[in-house]
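NBS-LRR resistance protein RGC110, pasting as requested.
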Amino acid sequence: RYFLVLDDVWAENFQFWETLRLPLMDGGKESKVLITARSKLVLKGMPTLLCIHLEGLTEDPCAELLLKQAFPNGCSSQHPNLEKISKKIVKRCHGSPLQAKLLGCLLNNETEEDKWEDMLNEVCSLEKDTNGILPSLMISYNHLDYHLKQCFKYCSMFPIDYEFDRDELVKLWMAEGLIQRSRSRSTLEVIGGKYFDNLLWRSFFEVSGNQGQKQKYRMPSLMHDLHDLA
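Structure tokens follow.
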């Protein structure tokens, strides 16, 4: 018997499930398969005994996450007008922590109410014209500096859940000529490290685990939706 976990499955075609099902038929009666997916269409090709729909974050914790990214020093309570706008913004996040973090980063230490209103309007305007890409992802990508867009574009070729090392990725960027020399005396390695840290802070990268004593990273699966845009 077996317990098989398939995480973040995207395949919606029947042939995929048929190919997978055949070798699993030899398992015992107590064998189980656990599947996680973002699309209900994924499960249509496979019979399921129990389907559990997980809700996203409720409005309050989603707003707290956005404000934490916008005001890392915790001073959001000094701007009650911005807290009100944050509630309107997170309604467009549909409970997604990643979307809340992305938008919060773009509003980092921004205290002008007009800027928050502009962000809300930008999210609303993109909701109906994103070709399936979450508005917050498109906004975050559009707000990247050109050199960061180029580095992200390079990473978009990585397969989903591919793990990479910070220093090794910086060297790959250097080899491709993606790191711009600055007027300071900083080496390309240092500049590339700042590029990496910037993308990590903006949630284009995330920590995935440790291999030995080295920290490993990957792109959140949602970021792969930007592949065609990049």
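Note for the archive: DSSP finds nine helices and five strands in the chain.
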